[in-house]
Amino acid sequence: MAIPGNHKEPQDLHVAIIMDGNGRWATRQGKPRFMGHQAGAERVREIVKVAPEYHISTLTLFAFSSDNWQRPTSEVEFLMRLFHSHLLSEIGECADNGIRLQFIGRRDRLNPALVTLMRQAEAKTAKGENLLLRAAVDYSSREAILQAAQRIRPNQPVSKKQFSRLLCGADPLHAAPADVDLLIRTGGEQRLSDFLLWECAYAELYFTHTFWPDFDKAALQKAMEEFHRRERRFGRVLQTIQT
Ligand code: IPE
Ligand code: IPE
Ligand code: MG
Description:
Number of helices: 7
Bound molecules: 3-methylbut-3-enyl trihydrogen diphosphate, magnesium ion
Strand content: 15-25%
CATH topology: Undecaprenyl pyrophosphate synthetase
Radius of gyration: 18 Å
């Protein structure tokens, strides 16, 4: 349904996903947690591939939260190695398929070799126009908001758009992302866990009990169908009931 002032084209959606439930997926099958993370990485591949079919132009994935450092060292180290090897194997394919990679979150606590790879991935895919794929690594939304607020000069008013730009860091390669249209959280929890608090101001929220390693194309389709059934009002009164 058309919303006055909402000129967004349907092919221009920003979807964000909290990819949760890897550990429980593995535990339920009597497997160690790391196997859930491995299976989760495979799902990332699949969902990224089909995203443009659903008119998603920006996909932001929560890969590792700043609070996830508090997990056992062995799990953290496994996740970092998995991220590194997954990225290494996917850069070429992303570049070939017009996928532009960007990373949000802190980089100063990551392994320098990983940071170098992330920078290379961003540079090599910078011309991609089919999908902007943003991975949130060592990411905390409140931290990002604090950092952005500290970059505002005293007595210099900033617009919401400028602030959104500040939120993705100081990197000039980073474009200002659109607000999130749909936030999906897998794994059954109904919370934001410090993810995109500013960007989700008017996002539609979709929670599913499906664990991330089971979240396939059909599950994404179901989420997108639900999204298109939602009536987005942005605080206004719909034209059809205004008379
Ligand atoms: C999400 O799955 C992946 C990361 C947080 C890195 P979890 O590892 O949180 O899986 P559960 O929630 O314990 O099942
Ligand atoms: C959120 O999941 C972070 C990621 C999916 C990367 P968590 O499993 O860390 O969140 P909580 O602890 O359930 O809030
Ligand atoms: Mg979890």
